[in-house]
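Milestone M4 deliverable, item 7.
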Amino acid sequence: MRGWLAYEHPFVDGNGRTARALFYWFMLKNDYWLFEFLTVSRVIARSRMRYYRSFLYSESDDGDLTYSLMYQLDATKQALGDLREYLQNKQAEQKSLAHTLRAVPDVNLRQRELLAHALRNPEQLYTFQSHQRSQVITYVTARRDILDLVDRGLLSPTRQGRQRAFFASEDLADKLRTPRRARS
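Output delivered:
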C-alpha cells in the first residue's frame, strides 16, 4: 500500500505523508509498538534522492516494488539506529545530571528533584504551592526548600500576578557544577 501510494500519486499533494501515516498505522495496529518512537521521515529527508530513485527503479522494472521495499527497510534500520543514539545520549545526559546533583552539598531529595526539573525545563515557574503539591509536603516545608535554593542562588524570585514565583537561575547548570565554597 505504501509503495503504491508513493508510486501512483493519487493525490495532488501529500502522497508520501499519507503513505507513511498508513505505514505507521499498520505497524502500530499489529503491535510493533517501537514504531511509535521512530522517525522514518527524518531518514527519508536526509536521503531524498535514494528515496526517489527507489520509485524510478520500480517504474523502469515493470512496477516491481522490491526497490521501494528495500529502501524502506534500510530507512527503518537507520531510524532504529537514530533512536538508539538518541536514547544513549539521553541516558548519558541523565547520568551527568544525577552526578551533578549528587555533588551539590546539603540539599535534600525534594530540592534535588526540583533542581533536576528546573534544569530540564528552564522556563518553568515554581511556587510554594506547586512544590508543596508535587512533593506532598506542608506549605512551611515547601517554602523552606525553595527559599534555601534562592539563598544559594540556584533559583531566582519573580512575580506571577500577586503570587511569588521562582525560576531556575540563568546559569544554574554552571552553579551546580561549581563547588559552593568557590561560589561564595
